[in-house]
Amino acid sequence: MKLTNLIDNPVRRKGTDERIGRCVDVIVDMKAGRVAYVLVGDHRNAALIEHAALEIVDSALVADISQERFEQLREDAADAAATGPLDLSALPPVIIGPFGFTLAPVMMGAVLNSEMSREKPRVRPDIDQKHAYWHWFSRLLGLPVFDTGSELGTAEDFRIDPMTLEFTTLDVCALSGTKRQVPFNAVGHVSRDANSIILR
Fold first, then answer.
1. What's the rounded Cα separation, in Å, for the pair 4 and 143?
2. pLDDT at 31 over 60
3. How does 139-164 read in b/e, with b if 16+ C-beta sit within 10 Å?
4. Comparing 46-55, 111-120, 158-167, 173-182, which segment has the lowest mean pLDDT?
5. 3-80 and 140-199 share one CATH topology?
6. How far is CA 151 from CA 89, 137, 156, 197, 198, in A?
7. Could you read off the pLDDT of 95-150 as tens digits, one per residue?
8. Domain 3-80 is classified in which CATH homologous superfamily?
9. Which 8-state DSSP code applies to residue 98?
10. CA-CA distance, 95 to 46, in Å (whole number)?
């Protein structure tokens, strides 16, 4: 199963049809060769759910997590995320700007907040330095893939075993446009600044 098939698709609570959010992104553990965490929620409010609480049923993610635990994880993620939209509610309704032009802070705030959410639609917590082998999946897509002698192409997808959430292959789009699957045990590492994927 392709990991990209999970991105933006609903995640539901185990044993129910309740949708708790969408799969925003995935933290991949390159050393262990599996999904470490899944970021579940929406563009502004999400939770990191560990792989042990997740399974894939009928090609969809299912989380074995209580509502209370999910809310706590969302609070934790919100604390780690960047600041939210600008709050301009305390400003006066109109400000006289340079050359006598009037500016409405509330209107400016609406425009700025709209632009901010377009620029950063999904806030992902930074990954701690002690987890050098963890990377956001979305940031690995499109990276150049190198073997010992040359560039093979770009990373297009990871394929996973739906039962274990372990990676089976790395899909590479070659420079010629042809596609190939590289066994995941041939993948060496990702540079810490995440600018390339190196094969063994």
1. 15
2. yes
3. ebbebebeeeeeebbbbbbbbbebee
4. 111-120
5. yes
6. 53, 20, 14, 10, 9
7. 444 444 444 444 444 444 444 444 444 467 777 778 889 999 999 999 999 998 89
8. PRC-barrel domain (2.30.30.240)
9. G
10. 36
Neighbouring C-beta atoms of residue 52, cutoff 10 Å: 8
CA 115, distance to chain mean position in Å, is 20
The pLDDT, as a whole number, for residue 135 is 92
Contacts (Cβ under 8 Å, ≥6 apart) of 175: 151, 152, 153
How is the chain split into domains, by residue range? Answer: 3-80, 83-119, 140-199
Work out the end-to-end distance of the chain between its first and last CA atoms, rounded to an integer number of angstroms.
23
Q: Which stretches of 42-186 are assigned E, i.e. beta strand?
A: 46-50, 54-57, 60-63, 95-96, 102-103, 134-136, 144-146, 151-160, 167-174, 179-183
Q: Which fold has domain 140-199?
A: SH3 type barrels. (2.30.30)
HSE-CB at 26 with a 13 A cutoff on CA atoms is 30
List C-alpha distances in Å: 129 to 29, 85, 132, 183.
13, 28, 6, 27
Do residues 175 and 185 touch, judged by C-beta distance below 8 A? no
| Residue 7, token pair as written in the block | 């991105």
The Cα–Cα gap between 42 and 44 comes to 6
